[in-house]
Amino acid sequence: MNDYPKPPFPKQGQPVPGSQKKMDPYPDCGEQSYKGSGRLEGKIALITGADSGIGRAVAIAFAREGADVVVAYLNEHEDAQETRAGRAGGRQCLLLPGDLAQKAHCQALVDKTVERFGRIDVLVNNAAFQMTHEHFEDIPDDEWVMTFDVNITAIFRICQAALKHMQPGSSIINTSSVNSDMPKPTLLPYATTKGAIANFTAGLAQMLGEKNIRVNCVAPGPIWTPLIVSSMPDEEVQNFGGQTPLGRPGQPVEVAPIYVLLASDEASYITGQRYGITGGKPML
Ligand code: NAD
Ligand code: MG
User: Fold this and answer.
1) Is it the case that residue 1 has pLDDT exceeding 80?
2) Which residues, in sequence order, are CB contacts of 118 under 8 Å at separation 6+?
3) CB of 36 shorter than 6 A to ligand 1
4) Sheet (strand 93-97) strand order
5) Domain containing residue 200: CATH number
6) 150 C-beta closer than 6 A to ligand 1
7) Local confidence band at 2 (pLDDT 50, 70, 90 cut-offs)
8) Distance between CA 204 and CA 167 in Å, rounded?
9) What's the rounded mean pLDDT across residues 213-231?
10) Phi-psi region of 126 (alpha: psi -120 to 50; beta: other; left: phi over 0)
11) Does any domain span residue 217?
12) What is the count of structural domains for the chain?
């Protein structure tokens, strides 16, 4: 049995977007543990926010399952290098930094992936921004717009650019959140985008069914990542995950298996769905 860390955690503020290297305890992205068995052999995967946290765990798992991976991220070069080092198994890994709020960058991610690998079989839209605000009046207008640009508009843009390079049987996986239908009020802009991602997923799946391209989303509960320590108040970070039935936050490696399933050919009849990975917090 895995013995993952439980709260209380040490106090640790970090500026956005946060560095995984500086976290205590260090998040487990499967670097030492994930064992592949050829489930994604030969596939090409583009994953946003893959330098750290859930995206890193997905990139490591995908590579160890036989995929070549493109790791898109904002600017955390050191974390991205660690993702690349963790992939093992001899698969290729292309690192692409840049800001998803920029339309041209969304297009460039797809162009550079196709230039290197010729196509996209799995697209994982996982990057996100969030910030805590105690009062509605405190939310800056430009932060609201930026949150939507990064969390949902970029998904629309990347999907649109990627689609012409995706063959029947390909898979799109978006990272939503438990906030998609249980919004935490202090994360209002973020939670609103996570609801939009779940809705977008269900709608797009219906549009792409005739092309046999599947679209699903994952709704994590509390997962121990840089996003958390760079955006939440100290007390919440110190008790993070303590209210779940399992009494602890999930580690990124515990979220990766659902992405592997949804990316694989075994999931050929699974589309338009949202999967909770919440440590037992109900999502009905
Ligand atoms: P993380 O900080 O490790 O990953 C988020 C990544 O998004 C960052 O590494 C960063 O490179 C990228 N990013 C942020 N702004 C960007 C921008 N402007 N341009 C390009 N990239 C940008 O944190 P994580 O928790 O692993 O987050 C991954 C996904 O999981 C997010 O969609 C998040 O909303 C979702 N999620 C996380 C939790 C949790 O408790 N950690 C819960 C529910 C959902
Ligand atoms: Mg990061």
Assistant:
1) no
2) 44
3) no
4) 93-97, 68-73, 44-48, 122-125, 171-175, 214-220, 274-277
5) 3.40.50.720
6) yes
7) confident
8) 16
9) 98
10) alpha
11) yes
12) 1
Which residue shows structure tokens 């909770």?
A: 276
Instruction: Name the pTM for this structure.
Output: 0.99
CA 207 to ligand 2 center in whole angstroms: 32
Q: What residues have their beta carbon closer than 5 A to ion ligand 2?
A: 51-52, 76, 226
Ligand that lies nearest to the alpha carbon of residue 197, given by its number in the listed order: 1
253 is a domain residue: yes
Residue in this structure with the two tokens 């910030």, named with its chain if needed: 131
Name residue 90's amino acid: G
How confident is the model over 48-98, as pLDDT tens digits? 999 999 999 999 999 999 999 999 999 999 999 999 999 877 899 999 999
Which range marks the domain in which residue 117 is found? 22-277
Q: Is 1 inside any structural domain?
A: no
Contact partners, residue 237, CB within 8 Å, separation at least 6: 9, 11, 12, 228, 229
Q: Is residue 167 part of a domain?
A: yes
CA-proximal residue: ligand 1, atom 31 (nearest): 128
